[in-house]
Amino acid sequence: MNKTLQIDNNFLILNKRSKPKPSVVYDTYWRFASERQNIFFKRFNNLKYPWTEDSILEQHKFTNVYRATDRVSQYLIKNVIYKGNQEPNEVFFRIILFKIFNRISTWEFLEKEFGEINFNDYSFKKYDKVLSGLMQAKVPIYSAAYIMASGQSTFGHQKKHQNHLKLIELMIEKNVPYKLQRCNNMAEAYDLILTYPTIGEFLAYQYVTDFNYSMLTSFSEMEFVQAGPGAQDGIAKCFRDFGNYSFEDIIRMMSDNQEYEFERLGLEFKKLWGRNLQLIDCQNIFCEVDKYSRVVHPNITGYSNRKRIKQKFIFEDKDSIEFYFPPKWGINELIQNNYGRPA
């Protein structure tokens, strides 16, 4: 055998795909996604509660199927990204400040104290004073959704929020907003964000997705994905054998096969005004299916081995959200024209 042929054979062996083997939870993934999206549109159309006959979905809290439709993401898009100065430093500052705390009440308190939030008027001393005051009053300033390292070993401050304010200052000092604009793809932008202290792999992916809602970048959400811990748990439940696929390979496979799988199961999935599930959405659904299957498939365990769903859903008759999406998606015009509004 000559050397060239040997290399070619090795290449073929290494690239031979061994497909994942689904478990019983695999079909649950698609059924969950379809019914959770049905609930979303019933709420959108102001139909009366309850919106589902699925007792688990009725009694417990789950995020929406599309990440951009969730309450915090909607607040970020409408009230943070597209409200205010659109200069790169200013947009970046608002996004990273909001997302580090990821808590609407914290943002609104800062707005109450400072008026319009902008980097041009930012002062570490002033922001530290306000945030420290909230902590002293026992008011939570961080969401429990993401857990960030304190950054004390890097920035040297005793309080977590002080180090995070210094992280924001560092990123703007290093021209991250303009570097993001020069990135050729989402993976490159992810690698850039990942180089900064206290930001791990999953957070870097979440932040890049949030920056991409703005006009700083215009990546497709189908370019790149990073599986978080919750998604990995869900994947472990949906597949009894991964073959030689990575977590990210499996997420992409789900996105690629979505139309076939909904049709196979006889499910009429209501897309987001024509927008298919993106990689970030399929990743998130795995997180929610991990929770959902704790009740539906109690004998199938993931990595965390959790047995119950913590958060209960409590119905409150609130005003419906006026949904707003990144203008570059072309969805806002469809909503205004009452087009593609599934019941």
Question: What's this entry about, in short?
Answer:
This protein is mostly helical and 343 residues long. The protein contains 16 helices and 2 strands.
What's the average pLDDT? 92
CA-CA gap between termini? 64 Å
Topology order in helix (H) and strand (E) letters: HEHHHHHHHHHHHHEHHH
The fraction of residues in strands falls at: under 5%
Name the helicity range: 40-55%
> What's the story with the biggest beta sheet?
2 strands, antiparallel
Number of discrete domains: 2
**Overall geometry:** globular
Number of strands: 2
Radius of gyration using CA atoms only: 22 Å
Structural class: mainly alpha
Strand order of the largest sheet: 1-2
Residue windows where pLDDT falls under 50 for at least 5 positions:
1-14
Tally of alpha and pi helices: 16
Features:
343 residues, mainly alpha, 2 domains, two-stranded antiparallel ribbon, 16 helices, 2 strands, 1% strand, disordered N terminus
Please describe what this structure looks like.
The protein is an all-alpha fold and 343 residues long. The chain folds into 2 domains: 21-69 and 225-336, no CATH class; 83-213, no CATH class. The chain is built from 16 helices and 2 strands. It has helices at 3-14, 25-44, 55-59, 71-81, 88-101, 104-114, 124-136, 152-155, 160-173, 176-182, 186-194, 201-213, 229-238, 247-264, 279-296, 332-336; strands at residues 21-22, 239-241. Strands 1-2 form a two-stranded antiparallel ribbon. The relative contact order is 0.16. The model is unreliable at 1-14 (pLDDT under 50).
